[in-house]
User: Fold this.
Amino acid sequence: MIQNLVDGVLVGSVLSLGAVGLTMVMHMLRFANFSHAELLSIGAYSALVFDALFSAMMPPLTAAIGPLSMTWALALSVVFSLVITGLSALLIDRLVFKRVREKGSELSMVFASFGVAMIIRNVVGLIFGLGTHLYSKDIVFAVVLSRDPLLLVKPDQVFTLVAALLIMLIMHFVLSRTTLGYSLRAVAENPTLAQVNGIRLSHMIALVWLVGGGLAAVAGIFYGLSNQISPMIGRDLVLPIFAATIVGGIGSIYGAVLGGFIVGISASLALAILPSGYSPSMPFLIILAVLLIRPNGLFGEEQT
Amino acid sequence: MIGLLSYAVFFTTVASILAIAVLGLNLQWGNTGLFNGGVVAFFGAGAYGTLILGSAAQPDQFGGFNLFYPAALIGGMVVAGLLAWVVGILTLRLRHDYLAIATFGIAVTFENIMRNAEWLSGGAKGIRGFEQPLRDAFGGGLAYNAAFLAFVVAALIAVYQFLQHLVSSPFGRLLRAIREDEGAARSLGKAPSRVRLTAFITGSVIMGLSGGLYATFYAFVSPQDVLPTLTFQIWAMLIVGGAGNNRGAVLGAFLIWGAWTASGWSLSRFAPIEAQLYTGSIQYILIGSVIVGMLLWRPQGLFPERLVVSQSGKPGATKKQGV
Assistant:
């Protein structure tokens, strides 16, 4: 039971990172982006490529950092993958979403995102194969925190959690203390009024994609670190991430963080009762429960 | 020759069954503007519902009610309608993304439960023990398949006529009014969320009929038949055909199903052996590109919706109240 709780917190940190970007896009551009989870996949795979590249170019970097399975090469790759994924998100917006946005309704955007998700997922599958990859083949033994109840934690998992929390803290300070953060929130709140006050809407939209893509990349890499990397990352995570945004309330960044942890923890706890085959159903049950009890989520405002 | 003929019968049957689902989606998306991201859940509810109600009893298996076939088919449609009612009542009052996410979620969950709940659905093995109705009367084989095709085409025509009638009726006008301007419709005393719910359930029941016919045709259904890909295919059919136009929806179904089978056939025939594993991926990229490309370059589809002015604005023409 406690093991499930700990696992849930770790899954939750990945979901939170993904959900923060998604909720920002959903709030600002007013559409449910079904291709957001594919950005996690892009992030995970580009880190894989950079990791291989750096390891080949600079062998000393292949040393593991402390007790982690993460190497210096991979740590460096995170930075590059973050940039690549942010730029990919921006590119997808320029190529598809921006054009659909100028032409059609918000629902056409939802639909376009379905198509984009399908294309990205299968192109990734074509390039890297349908099988799974790992960042490191070394087996990292879990540290036994207690024997009764049995509680196992891998150093990687602790690192993931700490890093995720740190990133969220940085996000918090940027949003609440800087002009940039104010502009972002202003645009999300009321795009027209923000423009009247001299905020460039197009710049803010680009920024949201960059930040959302960057966070998604980190989430994807962290997911790959504790699980495996496969082209199905997007398919498996899209619903839990949506559930996290709905729990938190669409548009609320703090809600998304909390929502990610709630979805991660409750899905893991439910596995203590249900057979593990049912885990893909959990996010939907959580969505249903939220819609029944508090349709606008924990921090969401009423919108129609 | 016989081979070609029986393939033509097979192809037309499947395409007509899918066309029924596309018509159901057209009522939801084309006429009402509701985004159903989980078509396959309602299709699957009809398929599983029909087989569970209509099959003979099997050991360790829920169902086996062995109902009279039309009753089983209607039962499947009712199951699809109930599923739509649950999702609709929770989400249709909210911002539009909620319906998209919830329907997508129910499709994932439906497939997941059908795969795992062995007592209910036979798990990955699927449901067996269903006897196609009147199979003996036609002696099976091509004659039976041709007769079943006639039945499916009759169902398609019936659904088409029903929807044509519906969208040209005052109710159809109300749907379009809500799609175009909800506030205006509400100011005329209409209740948008209730009308949306009606349209959503009706569309889903039609998808349930399509699923029921599909399961009858194969006399078998398994989780492989309710994968999310089917939702994409049905969506592509509607978008290519033209949302809001029933004739476009049917033609789109035949066109996309033809392109899908043709691409699958040519990939399996001409692609190198090593690439065979990736046939599915290539097909999905094609269908994804069709969806995105249509939205970018021809969002109204090949057969655009024909907007009818139901009352003339010219002075002197009779003016009627209401939408």
Remarks:
- The radius of gyration of chain A is 19 Å.
